[in-house]
Specification:
Belongs to the GART family. It catalyses: N(1)-(5-phospho-beta-D-ribosyl)glycinamide + (6R)-10-formyltetrahydrofolate = N(2)-formyl-N(1)-(5-phospho-beta-D-ribosyl)glycinamide + (6S)-5,6,7,8-tetrahydrofolate + H(+). Pathway: Purine metabolism; IMP biosynthesis via de novo pathway; N(2)-formyl-N(1)-(5-phospho-D-ribosyl)glycinamide from N(1)-(5-phospho-D-ribosyl)glycinamide (10-formyl THF route): step 1/1. There is one protein chain. With about 200 residues, the chain is an alpha/beta fold. Helices cover about 35% and strands about 25% of the residues. It is built from six helices and nine strands. Strands 3-2-1-4-5-6-7 form a seven-stranded mixed β-sheet. Strand 2, helix 2 and strand 3 form a beta-alpha-beta unit. Helix 1 packs parallel to helix 6. The structure holds 5-O-phosphono-beta-D-ribofuranosylamine. 5-O-phosphono-beta-D-ribofuranosylamine binds next to helix 1, strand 5 and helix 6.
């Protein structure tokens, strides 16, 4: 079961998938890592693991449609069964989304706190519980069908960094477990409900 992982930053979620994939029982391998920028730790993590990488910068293309097209072609070269957006900070276009199933991990309990500042927004709101979500990606921003979620308590004195680190500690486990189950057991999507288990989408 072939995974292409998309990153934009430190790649700790990617690292969790790379580590999990060293165990054959995980049922999936990371066949390539794509990024929207160079010079990020996520690409170094891939290179260390001997996984091919590619970079497609929006700014290298005349417009987002051409970027979307180019990114879809780069991903297609690796023939993925599933694309995993793990801290990828660009909205994927219709060419990518039309060609592959994509899951995303988000550091909040969607539909609460979508967008690029979920942890900051949850703290600012004063929630006592937040968490992380693995969901299928649709054309919106963090709006696709939920696959798995896990709650994380907010602690006195938390700031954005301490809370995000605690969430990320839970998030990578949830992502590995969810992607592993999708690889081994398959999944079905009915309306907005994703069911893991027999029967493939
Ligand atoms: C993760 O919390 C992800 O949900 C969010 O940004 C963070 C990326 O972390 N979009 P990393 O690059 O996987 O370390």
């Amino acid at each position: 079961f072939r995974l292409v992982v998309l990153v934009s930053g430190s790649g700790t979620n990617l690292q969790a998938l790379l580590d999990a994939a060293t165990d054959h029982a995980f049922g999936a391998t990371v066949v390539a890592v794509g990024a929207d920028r160079t010079g990020i730790e996520g690409l170094i993590r891939a290179e260390r693991a001997g996984v091919p990488t590619f970079v497609e910068r929006v700014g290298d293309h005349p417009d987002r449609e051409k970027w979307d097209e180019s990114l879809a072609e780069r991903i297609a070269e690796h023939k993925p069964d599933l694309v995993v957006s793990a801290g990828f900070m660009k909205i994927l276009g219709p060419r990518v989304l039309g060609a592959f199933p994509v899951v995303n991990t988000h550091p909040a309990l969607l539909p609460a706190f979508p967008g690029a500042h979920a942890v900051r927004d949850a703290l600012a709101y004063g929630v006592r519980v937040t968490g992380c979500t693995v969901h299928l990606v649709d054309a919106g921003v963090d709006t696709g069908p939920v696959i798995a979620q896990e709650a994380v308590a907010v602690r006195e004195g938390d700031d954005e960094e301490s809370l995000h680190e605690r969430i990320k500690g839970v998030e990578r486990g949830l992502l590995v477990e969810t992607v592993g189950r999708m690889a081994r057991e398959g999944w079905t999507l009915t309306g907005r409900t994703v069911r893991l288990g027999p029967g493939r989408v």
